[in-house]
Write a structure and sequence with these properties.
18 helices; disordered N terminus; 440 residues; mainly alpha; 2% strand
Length: 440
């Protein structure tokens, strides 16, 4: 850039005299009026359907796949299992599935934040178990108010994440090592908290159990939720288009906004119809969706969210731009710890207990797989909190279908691992294609 400016300046000096007058002493010619840059997206939209089709092909060739692979995966999985056993696509099974993915999805949201930095957190499983044990012991064994015990558990998850972030951002210990050590240490602390009994049963009337099991049986609840969600999406799209139009930058035309809103509405009301065919809208799913909307707003619409993407995309560039990299790192791991606590509480509410196996098994694999399969890049700088929902839906659908078919756990592990590997391969190939196209 400096060399270009120097060359331009040298050319100007050779062609002009002092004070900008031409070297031949004549009158200074008026500078040509600069032409506004034309965004290719505007040209695409002017070409109509043909333009959008060409743009779609260009994105596929350059590796900009977005959520397409995971959406195709969900369709294929549901088609296969639905054809093998009609029970899979029943309203009851799909309603149960929407509740079962909440705990895993909550923890996966925290993993998404960490992956956006290009890092990993291997402790979220043990942190979720520790926070569930804290709530159970404080509330059930020690008689602490359930809401206060809930806050203590959430604060515990945030504190653990802050500790990880401190050693990573301030001390310089690699995140892999810090969280691997945390995985062992917090699992040991969980065993210590649970004591000799090893298991604490959580009453069905407990707030944690009710957060998971409560259902809104009135059909209006699901349909109103769908309508509100679609309305908020339409309003946000219109406001964004208006803001971009006022700033004279490319914006989505009304026709495209309405088309996208129609697709979202079709999905939302279809989901509401299926839920109402069984027992109605689960409170756990509603809380999950609200958290996704809030955190998506934080990531895409706030300065802090842009800083996360900047640090994950180019840490040195972010540092030179004045971003506090240590703060971003510490805060992201704090969010991951908090979401691990939230997910752990929902998982405890699902089985109504906290035990020595809480947070263990294949939970860590599932939450990382959910984030990656949903479309969040392992290389940092690209992803969305909605990846947690989509990825958890893929993982949950595979497990639900194989359970219905009576497939053994060994085969389930192998298939889930294969899906995770396939997602990483797609991510790697996509990144390579983007580099070749000059977009990475």
């Amino acid at each position: 850039m400096t060399g270009d400016r120097d060359r331009d300046q040298g050319a100007g000096d050779r062609g002009a005299g002092r004070f900008g007058r031409p070297a031949d002493g004549g009158a200074q010619a008026p500078a040509p009026e600069s032409l506004p840059a034309v965004d290719t997206r505007l040209i695409v939209r002017e070409e109509g359907f043909r333009g959008y089709l060409g743009e779609f092909r260009r994105k596929m060739r350059s590796g900009e796949l977005g959520s397409l692979p995971v959406i195709v995966a969900v369709i294929v999985i549901w088609t296969v299992f639905g054809s093998l056993d009609s029970t899979f696509l029943s309203a009851q099974n799909l309603s149960d599935l929407s509740q079962q993915i909440v705990g895993t999805g909550m923890i996966a949201v925290g993993i998404v934040f960490v992956l956006l930095l290009g890092e990993i957190d291997l402790s979220v499983g043990s942190v979720s178990g520790l926070c569930a044990a804290l709530f159970a012991v404080l509330n059930v064994n020690n008689g602490m108010n359930q809401w206060l015990a809930l806050l203590v558990a959430l604060a515990g998850g945030a504190a653990v994440g802050l500790i990880h972030g401190f050693f990573f951002a301030k001390v310089g210990v690699p995140a892999f090592v810090v969280t691997l050590a945390g995985n062992l240490a917090w699992n040991g602390l969980m065993l210590q908290v649970l004591g000799s009994t090893g298991t604490v049963n959580i009453p069905s009337e407990s707030v944690v159990s009710k957060l998971y099991s409560t259902l809104f049986h009135s059909p209006a609840a699901a349909y109103v939720t769908a309508a509100v969600g679609v309305g908020l999406f339409l309003l946000a799209s219109l406001l964004d288009a208006r803001r971009r139009q006022a700033a004279r930058v490319p914006y989505r035309p009304i026709a495209e906004i309405l088309l996208r809103t129609f697709v979202i509405a079709a999905i939302a009301f279809a989901a509401a119809y299926i839920l109402n065919r069984y027992q109605g809208l689960p409170l756990a799913l509603l809380i999950f969706l609200i958290l996704l909307v809030v955190l998506d707003f934080v990531l895409r619409r706030t300065r802090y969210g842009r800083q996360i993407f900047a640090v994950g995309g180019n840490i040195e560039g972010a540092r030179r731009a004045g971003i506090s990299v240590p703060f971003v790192r510490m805060s992201v791991f704090t969010i991951a710890g908090t979401m691990a606590a939230v997910g752990g509480l929902f998982l405890a509410g699902q089985i109504q207990s906290a035990s020595q196996t809480s947070g263990g098994g294949n939970l860590l694999m599932n939450v990382i797989a959910a984030a990656v399969i949903g479309g969040t890049s392992l290389f940092g700088g690209r992803g969305s909190v909605w990846s947690a929902l989509l990825g958890a839906l893929v993982i949950g659908s595979i497990q639900s279908g194989m359970n219905i078919m009576g497939v053994s756990n060994a085969v389930q592990f192998m298939i889930t691992g294969s899906v995770l590997l396939a997602a990483v391969v797609v991510d790697s190939l996509s990144r390579r294609s983007q580099k070749a196209a000059g977009r990475a």
